[in-house]
Amino acid sequence: MAALDSDSEEDLVSYGTGLEPLEEGERPKKPIPLQDQTVRDEKGRYKRFHGAFSGGFSAGYFNTVGSKEGWTPSTFISSRQNRADKSVLGPEDFMDEEDLSEFGIAPKAIVTTDDFASKTKDRIREKARQLAAATAPIPGATLLDDLITPAKLSVGFELLRKMGWKEGQGVGPRVKRRPRRQKPDPGVKIYGCALPPGSSEGSEEEDDDYLPDNVTFAPKDVTPVDFTPKDNVHGLAYKGLDPHQALFGTSGEHLNLFSGGSEGTSNLLGDIGLNKGRKLGISGQAFGVGALEEEDDDIYATETLSKYDTVLKDEEPGDGLYGWTAPKQYKSQKESEKDLRYIGKILDGFSLASKSLSSKKIYPPPELPKDYRPVHYFRPVVTATSENSHLLQVLSESAGKAAQDPGTHSRHQLNACKRAELLGETPVQSSATSVLEFLSQKDRERIKELKQATDLKAAQLKARSLAQNASSSRLQPSSPDLGHCSWRMALGAGTATTRASNFKPFAKDPEKQKRYEEFLVHVKKGQKDALEHCLDPSMTEWERGREREEFARAAQLYVSSHSTLSSRFTHAKEEDDSDQVEVPRDQENDVNDKQSAVKMKMFGKLTRDTFEWHPDKLLCKRFNVPDPYPDSTLVGLPRVKRDKYSVFNFLTLPETSSSPTTQASSDKVPQHRGPDKSRKPSRWDTSKQEKKEDSISEFLSLARSKVGPPKQESSPIVNKEEEHVLEPLSNKMVNKDVDSPTEGEGSRPSMDLFKAIFASSSDEKSSSSEDEQGDSEDDQEGTEEATFRSSQEIDLGETSSLAHASEPVHPEPTPFPIQKMEIDEREEFGPRLPPVFCPNARQKLEIPQKGKHKKNKEKHKNKKEHRRKKEKKKKHKKHKHKSKQKNKKSEKSSSSESTDSSDSQSDEEGTTDLSPQELLRRLKCLPLRRQ
Amino acid sequence: MAFPEPKPRGPELPRKLLKTLDCGQGAVRAVRFNVDGNYCLTCGSDKTLKLWNPLRGTLLRTYSGHGYEVLDAAGSFDNSNLCSGGGDKAVVLWDVASGLVVRKFRGHAGKVNTVQFNEEATLILSGSIDSSIGCWGCHSWRPEPVQTLNEARDGISSVKVSDHEVLAGSVDGRVRRYDLRKGQLFSDYVGSPITCTCFSRDGQCTLVPSLDSTLRLLDKDTGELPGEYTGHQNKQYKLDCCLSERDTHVVSCSEDGKVFFWNLVEGSLALALPMGVGVVQSLAFHPTEPCLLTAMGGRIQCWREEAYEAEGGAG
Predict the structure, then answer these.
(1) pTM for this structure?
(2) What keywords sit in the KW lines (chain B) (predicted)?
(3) What DSSP assignment string belongs to A380-392?
């Protein structure tokens, strides 16, 4: 698989450097064992991994001195000639490079100096930042801010300081008394005792009861309230492990290490930030002491009850939480005590304000009306017409606005039309209130017709069901009265008669319809006994009663059905039973002359058809080609509407007068043999037709002369006739497969079928293919003949069989020698794609023969099917190309062969008693026999 | 256009059998080179599609996912995708590297005989025996084709695509050329069912073989017949044909187990290369070198010119 490897190299991505290829005969080197691997520094000296710090005392050469020769002071200068000036040697001179490196004991890297080491940090801001960092989407995003701290304090700080404010204190008037609860955290150690008296809490702590009067305290610093919403699933106030706490801790450490002065106060303030700062790394009650932590006193934190409130009461003012709870006490206190006793000092040039700032005025929110509901509901939109003006008025009144003069409409009440009017745009086709107005006159008419038809149908249905109901219930005495008054009521409303003339529930029975109409007229006139007048006197009483009821119901129903039904149903978007069908405008014209041209090898104009063809826009885009017809919505070949049942859609007859140099674009009468919805005419038509050119074309010309102008122009009656005639035909074609099983099953196929199948010969092939031609064609044939005979009123139920009978070509597999000669080249048009070769992968050798046989067999199968009308015929009949597809499928060989044969077996099993084995055996010996 | 020079042509024809590969996928329905000719695809009747290095004879990957035999395949210009069509009526777009099915288009009503990418591999054009050509967008999830060309009256046996044209040969005996730029459809009548089509590399001509054992060279613009090539046997099967790498020769399969080479201009038979017993089903010519792949039965064979020396000892 070396080849594979080397080959697969090409499309593999490799990382790293490969090993060098081995020399011829060279042994692969043994890898150096781990203990023998060494690390050297840049000077080639071994590096040691032992020692106190990095490198430790690897200062010398192999733990001795700096060179191989021993320790030699490199800068020895004899003091005899030039006195060595006393160079001041610093400790660095005796240090190794390692010590000066980043991780050495005296790193030379840039470090923050004291100025920057956040002694003067704004701790409130820092706290805020910590909070932000903890809750920020990217934890530690504020890290940079921490590293780069401004060295200078802001002016406000300076001013406050000058006024006596100290870090850690709150801003505001001093308070007399520290609340007892606010003890410093017992966990915090307190260093030093020289606390500034003003801000000390220590004294208070020593003796709770003793509170000197003259001592005031600064208010406690305010912790910014954290308003971040809780978006996790932890318990309240719980924070998960946050590794960034360690980072903040380091900054706190800095503060502690280098700012001894502020330590005391910060401790006393007992804020969380510093607490954390004291303890490096992750802290928490559940965690032990990390390796980096210096203090281990607080591992098992002791909970003291003094941390908790034991009494429910209002919070003390100035406890740092006023931002949150805003206790009234505090507010009132602030308002009452106007003398802000600030910490004594007032800056030069400043004085206390004599009058306080006018407090901000707060406007209350508007009051909601009592009956306000916070839900909006939309009022029905009513277009102003004469009938519903009243309703409209009511609505608008209820909406709280009186009907307004259109001129005074505000901007928001304008609709698009009015706006357009104001803007001076050209109005859109009047004020089209209905889609109908956009339609063309013709379409409108058609829609009208359709509507009428559907109305009629629905009404008929309903009438029938109602009549049935009525007849079932008519024995009850009250029903006729009911019917009476109901129809009278309905008619009395006056709506029924408006379109009654359109409504023909009894159209099938013209007499009855007439009577019904008469009845309607009478009713309209207001005659009470209208019904009696118009009923047929010759009818029996029962019939009369029945009809009376029917009429009443119909009249009543029409009123309701017309409005309700029509509002519920929409008309089909596509008319499914129009008499028109789309047919490509240009047809590839007849192949006869082309064939001769091909025979004469006169390729070129004679054999070429050129059509206008519209590619899809997307197709053009994908091909990177500009759309050749940018403003056409058409796709494919241009199409025209043709009469659906025109013979010319189905015929593929040659134009007898066709000149040899016709082109599709020429204005010759087009051949209507283009693809139809149901089936595509195939070359079979042409070949077939060529075959029997004289007979059919003669026939056709005859027919044409009879009909005169082309069918499209023929009178509607003829068309209708055609239609009627064709419908059963097509029905029959469809039905054929339904009843085919009954036809085909039961009887064992005659022997000549098997002969036809298994006795293969070349002439037979031709005949079979021809037969198939006929087969695939015969539906069309049927059509043609049907149309021709339609004028002669032939019973069309039998057309197809007639077609068979009258067709001299297909029925028998017996070859027609002359025809065979004729179709010899045609045969290559075979229904199949040229078979897929290599019939059998496993038995590669007798490929072609098998293929051929297969094909023959297939054909015969087709033939057989055709004749026996097996269920497979369905496909065959419905779609010519489907049958072809089948053929092709069957032409598949090798792997498909088994399925095919089983296929055929199953086919035959339906009709014959042949065992599959037998069949298989026969199939197998086919090639031999053939040779 | 590189019309044949007067210099000896013989050695240029691939007549030396370089390699025989037993594909092991049933009958090989089609063999196709990829865009640069380094690899080839074989479509097997056992529902698989295989990617080979034909010179080395190594199997690179097997693509399975068709529900029936694979009838044709093509590779995209960037070698990233393959498309194939088969008896299961599906057109499948494959990812070359992963071997997975990217899209499966099931719009045809019959076997898909032929598939082809357009120039930028944004479309797959597939010809089916349902007599339609589907243009499927490779990148869209629309199950229906961008456009269906259903002008043919019978099964499509072959589709070829150039930068602005689609050439389709149909069993109804016509070659249709859809010119997207002009917005026109040219339909040339040949008469006999067409088994394959081929653009010449200069884009001037189309090669059209048909079941009357004739190959015709048709002028694209006028539909005239500059050349006709006969001598081989092709009466039943859908056989491939192609032009040699510099349009000097016409190459066609034959049902008598040979591959025929004709001089394109003179129309004379240059070589009939015997392959063995059976039908040569499919062939493919290397885009730049005189290298021919033929498929017969379950094997493919790689042919090079006489002077060719295999690189290294690989394979």
Answers:
(1) 0.40
(2) Cytoplasm, Repeat, WD repeat
(3) PP----STTHHHH
